[in-house]
Amino acid sequence: SQAIGRELRDARGLAYSAGCSLEDFGDRSWFTASIGTRPENVADAENAIREAIRAFTGKELDESVVERAVNSMRGSVAMRRMTRISQAYSMGFNEMLGRATAFDATLDARLAGVPAADVKRVVGNDLDPDRMVTAVAK
Fold first, then answer.
1. pTM of the predicted structure, to 2 decimals
2. If you placed Cys at 17, which of 4, 36, 117, 138 could pair as Cys (CB 3.0 to 4.6 Å)?
3. What does 45-61 look like in DSSP terms, one character per residue?
């Protein structure tokens, strides 16, 4: 997410916001890359975001980068789960997907040990920008 933001927002000036997220839904995952740009930049921004994702595969990935990303993700999840209503939503969503009650705690513990090699393997095996769907909201 940081790499996409730096490239599209800072280096190319194509975005006022840019980032990525990964959500799992049972046995499937959903990778989302998003960009906020001016209407006249939509085509260039879409091409640039696909190029940036395509470049993920060949990039070296330092353990410290993965550690920062994991810590950021864990912190965001913890902040989202602070209120009782958010906790109830999360428990309901997990229940809908058939997950165990301890899913969030288990996920947090497993995230803490994610090595860069696993991230590179998943990117190489599963992230194909040519199979991605584009949605434009105006």
1. 0.70
2. 36
3. HHHHHHHHHHHHTTS--
